[in-house]
Amino acid sequence: MDSVQREALAERVLSLSTADETEVTIGTEDADLTRFTHEEIHQNVARSDAGISVRAILGQRTGTASTNLLDDASLRATVDRAIAIATLAPADPEIAPLPSGGPTTTPKGAYVKATAGASPQLRAGMADAIFKVAESHGFWCAGFARTQSAGYTIVNSNGARASFDGTDSGINVKMNAADSTGYGQAYSPDARTLDAREVANTAAGKAKNSAQPRAVEPGEWTVIMEPAAFGEFFAYLGQHFSAQAYDEGSSFLSDGLDKSYFSENVTITDDYSHPLAPSMPFDFEGQPKQRLKLVDAGIAKSIVTDSYWAKKLGRENTGHALPAPNAYGPQAIDLVVSPGSKSIAELIAETKRGLLISRFWYIRTVDQKKAIVTGMTRDGTFLIENGKVAGGVRNMRFNQSIITALGKCEFSNAQQRTGDYWFSLVVPAARIDGFTFSSGTQF
Amino acid sequence: MSFDDLAARALDTAGTRGAEYADVRFEVVRSERIETRNGVVTTLSDGASRGYGMRALFGGAWGFAASSDLTPAGIDRTAARAVEIAKAGAAIARHRLASAPLRAYVDTFATPMERDPADVPLGERVALLLRAEKALHVSPKISVGRAWIDLWHTDKTFYSTLGSRIEQSIRQTGGGIEALAVGDGDVQTRTFPGDIGLYKSGGWEIIEEAKLDQNAQRIGEEAEALLDAEQCPSGTRDIILGGSQVSLQIHESCGHPAELDRVMGWEANFSGVSFLEIAQLGNLRYGSDIVTICIDNTLPQGMATVGYDDEGTKSGSSDIIRDGMLVGYEMSNDTARAIGRESNACVRAQSWEFVPMIRMCNLNLLPGNVPFDGLFDGVKDGIYMESNRSWSIDDHRLNFQFGCEIAWEIKNGKRGKLLKNPTYAGMTPQFWNSCDAIADEKSWSPGEPPTAAKANRCRPAAPRSALRRRAFATCKSG
């Protein structure tokens, strides 16, 4: 279903509603994934779906209903159900009117036709190239190649009209040697730009160079996180910029904006138009998204809002609503950390003794307000001695406040789109002093 | 067209395109959620989704395609796509991993249910949540109170070219409450029941069993008290874990590592591998001899209780850990065949649009012989912890660190003062080999939160998808 068809369908559904205010959201998705292990494709899947969600508001009462049954009777029944639920819902005196929207421009490169039309043979070809690299090293590999396209149309009775089509693709490779592993990844809206062999070679190089890993003592270390690792670590700070977390007191920002929390090296924006991760220029209420500076040279400058939290806190609606209803409030989902001035090689060369980290695993929050998280290193952890990478080390567990870490950090001069999340992350590599490891593991 | 007619068309199309075997699973899913937050109903939603997922086998490779397009043309396209995908995989195959299931069944299954949630008026459901959530607010320090109910109803029909036709009606119900206390720069959370609510297969009786409103005031009081509680001390101590935390411990340190696809490296790049290697089957001492962990997908009210899994294998029970020894895995057809066994029906798809794969099912630590209060006997200096707050484990499932919402010190066999931010860490085999008591069946119950993504003397550390766990007995490690 293209945007013209979605818009026509949305208008038709909107016309069925007798509610005081109505919002109609249509989402379509075609997602293809090829997973492999031991030089064999073991999961090779494709899915296609289109769904519609109706939010009906009667005075101060709201009801939501959704369906992927798109025949006339089902659409009418969905509208009727949303209204019926709203009729029964208790009144919310803080309810905000639906936003009226505004003009938006889809960032260049967000939709690539070749990605949307990618075949299973294309993904198998990527897998085969990766297999050949593994075989040339005597390793075995596991990973995936994926391509997908999605479309959203949001209309409401207050005039908001917004449509977006986007694509994405990714390769993820883990190379497995006798006593070591290595990781590589690449993501892009344009599947033609993904170089499977290069990603595989990166992963194989890490597996090779981290062979016979030695155990090192836990404690405080200077660490250099490659973008994949830093992105996983940093991602746990994203929810702190939500107006909901800010208001309820669970965010470190609840202590106040316009205060210095981090090193002056730290500048964080929420930018849907970044060329590495072009995304939807409006939120899930159809409100145009602002490109926001959240942190400027270490000083917290902004939180993100949607219509409800903007009204509740008396702030501007920044256009960061998630699909309604949700328990999370508005979220910054296009996070960008600004780069520094040195290459990652220079950061390594300046480090007398430290650890180079390729990737983390299973990071979870230990203390919400202090943003303390724990997790494990994975798939390529190296000792740095006298400015040089000096072999692999066994994996370790860290317990570390993200806020504290960003107080003593320096970034590389090159950013990467990283992570395979429902939100977007563009980050550089990071060097962080005094990073705390609490224990080791057996591999 | 009926599902029977659509299935016949899909399987016929797949065969015509060259599939050596095919199956198709139609699902109609209804999901309702109600959530209240600080006196306001923030979510009152009702979702309906219908579609089908189809597997095709060609040349030792699987292809899977899913669609919500139930027109004859849509069926034809999806079936052809599944076969095309299988052929693309087969074209570069070095080995032949996949093969057809062994058996066909014609059967039906329906979740037993005492009271259909549809018979409970919406106003009554909302009133229960508002009442429970209001009772959480015992002080202005309770910044956020939340209460929620989830009602899931899935009708699915599975067909295969072997002749299976399995019709299942599955009902799952859950709910919970949570209090967030904020004060003096600290934030503390208490959740009930367990750490994510009570989720089981069944109807409204699950919500009644949860007793949300009867427990809300206590939960609010505990959240507030935690703000002023002492920090859990660091060091090596005996620990006793409450039932919901034991469920998390089992989930992460036994459930996930015993998934045979993970053991075989099928999840290596993503959710990791496992220390429970095939060569150790029958030989590895996983835990002390009082530790027996089994799968039972026929368990009444078990969250994963169904008649058949999503490969069409009949549900049953089997041991993973028996008397402390590794004796089995959670298996699919393909993985079981690789070790000379048959599937134990542990394959689930998240919904119609996802490929079926090994998922943790009803995984049970069998009860011991110690009354709950007896667990404290003989513990001179220990910590009792309840309700998970944080969980992390390495990608071989060895080094873990889990945090709980609340703890109490244990001095000379008695529960003492309240402690906050309890965390314990260790290595999986050492932990389970130091388990020296498990509570009896009076404190054992099935329960499965909706998310899961898988003792020695443990060290409480100073400072807390997926995602399925089960509530069980309480165990003591020391």
SSE map:
The complex is a heterodimer of chains A (443) and B (478).
Chain A: H1 3-16, E1 21-37, E2 40-58, E3 61-67, H2 72-88, H3 113-116, H4 120-137, E4 140-156, E5 161-176, E6 181-188, H5 196-209, E7 219-225, H6 227-234, H7 243-248, E8 268-270, E9 292-296, E10 299-300, H8 307-313, E11 334-337, H9 344-349, E12 353-357, E13 360-367, E14 372-377, E15 381-385, E16 388-392, E17 396-401, H10 402-405, E18 409-418, E19 424-440
Parallel strand pairs in A: 7-12, 11-19
Antiparallel strand pairs in A: 1-2, 1-4, 2-3, 4-5, 5-6, 7-19, 8-9, 8-11, 9-10, 12-15, 13-14, 14-17, 15-16, 17-19, 18-19
Chain B: H1 3-16, E1 21-37, E2 40-58, E3 61-67, H2 72-91, E4 106-110, H3 122-136, E5 142-160, E6 165-183, E7 186-192, E8 198-201, H4 205-210, H5 212-228, E9 230-231, E10 238-241, H6 243-255, H7 260-263, E11 293-296, E12 317-322, E13 325-326, H8 333-338, E14 347-348, E15 357-358, E16 363-365, E17 381-393, E18 399-411, E19 414-420, E20 423-427, H9 428-433, E21 435-438, E22 459-461, E23 475-477
Parallel strand pairs in B: 4-6, 9-19, 10-17
Antiparallel strand pairs in B: 1-2, 1-5, 2-3, 5-6, 6-7, 6-8, 10-23, 11-12, 11-16, 12-13, 14-15, 17-18, 18-19, 18-20, 20-22, 21-23
Would you kindly provide a written description of the structure presented here, covering whatever features stand out?
- The complex is a heterodimer of chains A (443) and B (478).
- Chain A is α+β, with helices and mostly antiparallel strands and 443 residues long.
- Chain A has two domains: 203 residues, PmbA/TldD fold (2-Layer Sandwich); 228 residues, no CATH class.
- Helices cover 22% and strands 38% of the residues of chain A.
- In chain A, strand 2 and strand 3 form a beta hairpin.
- In chain A, helix 4 runs parallel beside helix 5.
- Chain B has three domains: 88 residues, PmbA/TldD superfamily (PmbA/TldD fold); 123 residues, PmbA/TldD fold; 249 residues, no CATH class.
- In chain B, strands 9, 10, 17, 18, 19, 20, 21, 22 and 23 form a nine-stranded mixed beta sheet that branches. In chain B, strands 1, 2, 3, 4, 5, 6, 7 and 8 form an eight-stranded mixed beta sheet that branches.
- The C terminus of chain B is likely disordered.
- At the A-B interface, strand 1, strand 2, strand 3, helix 2 and helix 4 of A face strand 1, strand 2, strand 3, helix 2 and helix 3 of B.
